[in-house]
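Sample pair:
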Amino acid sequence: MTDNQNLTDEIINDAESHSEIIHALSTDSERETDTDGDDEHDFDDGIKSARFKKLQKKLRKEVSWAIRDFNMIEDGDVVMVCISGGKDSFTLLDILLFLKRIAPINFDVVAVNLDQKQPNFPEHVLPEYLSKQGIPHYILEKDTYSIVKSVVPEGKTYCSACSRLRRGSLYGFAKQIGATKIALGHHRDDILATFFLNLFHGGSLKAMPPKLLSDDKQNVLIRPLAYVAEKDIIKYANYKQFPIIPCGLCGSQENLQRAMINDMLREWDNAHPKRLASMFKALQNVAPSQLADRELFDFESLKTERTDDERLFEGDNIQVGVSEKLADIGLPTAPQVQTFNPKFSNKIPTINPVID
């Protein structure tokens, strides 16, 4: 067998394996939860509500689709789930642990929390919860709170500085322990809010990608909740009774721009339930030729490719003014007119018909 044939067989096998992974992640969760009655199942925490089971199935499918669409998790991955104690990261961890059980590939999940030493932070909550659930985890202790407070001027928001410090610590630790993917709990509404923040205040069209290679190319970040609406996460977290820890740093600041954007999105969602879904779809359907970024589309080289077909204006009359100057330019002073064709009475033509 030739080397080329071996390479071809490897490519085919990889494609078939990838197809199997995609199929299982998007369908096994349906099979696992497609049951009748009020039977209890693993990961249900004894919840018998039919509404909960329907919501659970929806979220598992949406996470599976995101993993499938962006090839977020592969065989042999060690997925480091960054858990803050908020509803989003708890939900992400819960669903990934379920998918780990049913996926046809082997991957591991480890939870990591960065204890930033905020005042009154209940340090015992996360270790106790994770240990009780049998979830392998690390708690990193680092006083970034004092650093943020010292470098951010009074009256300014802490989000940017806090986020940079947190990212640096978590990214470095992921490489230290050999984690191959870093899973973040950002959901669909977070992605949309970031888009509008950049649009309104940053002068750029960008959001949070579902999958991202870090600037130093040392880590791959994934956002498996990219297709999940925040309102569904709120409902899910309430059903599951996660031990939510409120943020005492940025959460205590008023008039944050992101909070204002979130309020705007919620108002839109209440008034027009399909609007947010449509906006997120737009992020997946970008047409560079219809925007104005010269780096994404070559506007300068656009040229016509006209044919010799003669097309006359179809209407009643053409008025000509200052015909001498038209003649100087080399333009017709008595352009021909074609009588309106009634065959288009029920359909508006985009251009005038070709003359036979």
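Strands lie at 78-82, 108-115, 137-141, 181-183, 211-213, 220-222, 313-314, 337-338.
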